[in-house]
């Protein structure tokens, strides 16, 4: 990178940091100087931050040759935006890069993205609880993690979750109930901790699409799908791939070791020496052929050392030797 190009990049980065302050993060990576600029963009809503329903992270990479070469631009972590809006924003960004080659462009890219977010400041897509789209007139809520739900749906979700929590809590013994953390509301999508007033949410009417939707009917296609899913679940349970199914749960992992050749030869030598000792025949006569073979193959318990208990005077001390 030439010194003049490096100076132009440095000047633009310093200008962005002066304008955006804490809203921009600048990273310098690699041996060859390369700047990566990241900023989270929200729609323009004035002082009403609660009315910002969409956002996206703009990442711009300034490498060697900038601004004579186009920077690398990416839109990451979109919230409340569908693919159609993202494609439109990317198209306008690419057009801007082609028409303004050789000029500082990062701040103008931020303006393009912000204008699109301001025009599309409504969540797009479906509510993950009821699977109905957001339409005009629906009352919805934005969580702290920028996920959207109908007020009616989220209230029912929290009510059902709290009921299930208390039902499972009552199954535990009293001493264990004291150790269980209290119920906490979490986002149905990312499981982040959220705080919502359920009493206010449940006063909202259900989604309009659900009121006009046809009643649910179990069709032949759904029955066939249920049978396939039941067969798949049975296969996974048999393989131990589903935790918590059945009375005893999945089978435990069993680790077995095969004796090596050296260990087997040593065991054979030790067995022959025991048979050659005096009295081995008399001792062997007590067992039948199968029992004697089983007794020889049973492993001996490990030596546990002397028993460190209490002596006859009630003081700690040595009280005989442990079993070998």
TrEMBL record:
PROSITE patterns: RWD, ZF_RING_2. Gene3D superfamilies: Ubiquitin Conjugating Enzyme, Zinc/RING finger domain, C3HC4 (zinc finger). GO terms for molecular function: ubiquitin protein ligase activity; zinc ion binding. Residues 254-324 are annotated as: Disordered. Keywords: Metal-binding, Zinc, Zinc-finger. Residues 11-120 form the RWD domain. Residues 310-324 have a biased composition (Basic residues). One of its GO terms (biological process) is cellular response to stress. This is E3 ubiquitin-protein ligase RNF25. It comes from Bombyx mori. The lineage of its organism: Eukaryota, Metazoa, Ecdysozoa, Arthropoda, Hexapoda.
